[in-house]
Amino acid sequence: MSAAIELDKVRFSWSSQVPIIDIDHWRVDCGDTLLLRGASGSGKSTLLSLLAGINKPQRGEICLLGSDITRLSARQRDKFRADHIGYIFQQFNLLPYLSAHENVLLGVHFSALRRQRLTQSATQTATDYLSRLGLSKQQQQQPAAVLSVGQQQRVAAARALIGAPEILIADEPTSALDTEHRDVFIKLLLELSQANNTTVVFVTHDATLAGHFNTHTELSQLNPLPQTASAGGSNV
Ligand SMILES: Nc1ncnc2c1ncn2[C@@H]1O[C@H](COP(=O)(O)OP(=O)(O)OP(=O)(O)O)[C@@H](O)[C@H]1O
Q: What are the annotated GO cellular component locations (predicted)?
């Protein structure tokens, strides 16, 4: 099984003194659906920003699909992300004045590679994804700003998955939902991901979601606490 994600001796700090991420080694296999759990403030979003190439560690290697993205320029990392990573942000980051449907099309707008992977037109694919996720034709044409939180979340998921990126990163996208809507959303998200053989890293502080995923990681086991790291503690 090849690695979708492999980290080696990765260290990152926002300030110069205290590393918030200090990971000796971590590997996620291609096709895994992984739940990454950690307490609030433990560094989950920071780790995801490194995986997505938004930030770069001060030390170490981050190999995604066999490429070490720490060797790429900021511009090359942006391109890598557009081509290979779907990202569902905590606050969804939809463009409020664009319709739900137009927001989904943005997922393939910046990547010729993702457009090439479509098996039908981008417009039809966006319609199909949104319909499968439960948005009516009418809701699909409404500006994102007037949609409910649950609807916006599904638009963000469709945008992240269109064009079959190899890796999906989801940063606590269910925190605003009740249990029933949350479970339905996760099942659909995993169904769509598995149809594309997309590797999923789903971040949450909620351990009760573990049953949906085939593997789990506790950030505290991967990454020593900031105080421990600054005192020179070892990894894992
Ligand atoms: N842009 C930033 N600049 C400086 N410090 C930051 C920045 N983003 C996060 N931090 C700090 O890094 C630490 C970890 O934050 P992070 O958002 O990664 O945690 P988290 O586990 O995702 O938290 P939550 O579950 O509450 O979203 C916090 O102490 C936070 O203040």
A: plasma membrane
